């Protein structure tokens, strides 16, 4: 698997503020690469430097074998992006928006090409509807069709679920996975929604105050041997019962739940023993491991 992006010691300073400070990371071909951090962590500034929208104060950016920003045109031919919300003409149809944006990119698109792109994002049936009638989720999907119309290698999505309802978020999640699985695209997804990134990313970086906190594949970051499992029960004697069992050393009590640190493969055995101890299980589930990791590393 080849490296599409290599960033070394990237920095951006606005007067006295170090928005990005010595950031290094790499993105491999075929990644869904999660770019994570709280609002103000430096995610959008980093992405704007990748896109050549703002100049770095220092460091190196190499993409597709080219150095940015010296070879900006060569790089941008390989990228499709949605930065914040897609810029659409609300009184034009989805088809006309896509056609116009394709022509601005230097393409001479056929009707079949445009309809195929709309079909890929589930908008073929609304091709001739005006964008002003679209939900925010539909606008985001049209934005992805525009980003893909010139068949780039890399898709960059900056906070793609902002403003979406739960259904829209689920649709966006499915679309991001499909960009990699069905269309063989590499995807960078910037977000502060940890749970969403955990469900789609193959590799990720967490940044805080412009600096890298950690980077790696999901398998590297989440050790199955240290899975955090939460038990919620209305059994007042649950902790005492478990305290006399083989699970006692792995248990920690919180205000309204019991936590166990164990291997992911041991969860069924724990559930079986809880039932044998006649403990009522209201809920037994894994804590969001990415959230726990983020909070631990950033001290939030």
From TrEMBL:
GO molecular-function term, one example from the UniProt record: ATP binding
Keywords of the record: ATP-binding, Nucleotide-binding, Transport
Domain (ABC transporter) ranges: 5-234
Keyword Lyase appears in the UniProt entry: no
Record keyword Kinase present: no
InterPro entries reported in the protein's UniProt record: AAA+_ATPase (IPR003593), ABC_transporter-like_ATP-bd (IPR003439), ABC_transporter-like_CS (IPR017871), P-loop_NTPase (IPR027417)
Family statement: Belongs to the ABC transporter superfamily.
Protein name: ATP-binding cassette domain-containing protein
């Amino acid at each position: 698997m080849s490296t599409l992006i290599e960033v070394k010691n990237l920095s951006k300073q606005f007067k006295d503020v170090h928005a990005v400070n010595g950031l290094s990371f790499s993105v491999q071909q075929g990644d869904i690469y999660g770019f994570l951090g709280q609002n103000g962590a430096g995610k959008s500034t980093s992405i704007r430097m990748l896109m050549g929208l703002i100049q770095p104060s220092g460091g190196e950016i190499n993409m597709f074998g080219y150095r940015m920003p010296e070879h900006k045109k060569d790089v941008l031919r390989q990228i499709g992006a949605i930065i914040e919300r897609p810029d659409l003409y609300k009184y034009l149809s989805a088809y006309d928006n896509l056609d116009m944006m394709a022509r601005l990119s230097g393409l001479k698109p056929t009707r079949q090409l445009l309809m195929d792109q709309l079909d890929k994002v589930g908008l073929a049936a609304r091709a001739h509807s005006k964008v002003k009638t679209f939900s925010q989720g539909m606008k985001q999907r049209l934005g992805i069709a525009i980003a893909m119309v010139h068949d780039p290698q890399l898709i960059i999505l900056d906070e793609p679920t902002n403003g979406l309802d739960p259904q829209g978020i689920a649709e966006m999640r499915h679309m991001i996975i499909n960009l990699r699985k069905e269309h063989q695209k590499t995807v960078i997804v910037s977000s502060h929604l940890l749970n969403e990134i955990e469900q789609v990313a193959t590799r990720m970086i967490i940044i805080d105050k412009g600096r890298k906190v950690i980077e790696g594949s999901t398998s590297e970051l989440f050790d199955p041997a240290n899975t955090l499992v939460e038990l919620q029960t209305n059994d007042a004697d649950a902790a005492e019962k478990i305290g006399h069992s083989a699970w006692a050393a792995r248990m920690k009590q919180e205000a309204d739940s019991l936590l166990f640190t164990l291997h992911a493969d041991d969860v069924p055995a724990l559930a079986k023993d809880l039932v044998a101890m006649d403990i009522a299980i209201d809920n037994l589930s894994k804590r969001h491991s990415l959230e726990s990791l983020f909070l631990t590393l950033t001290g939030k």
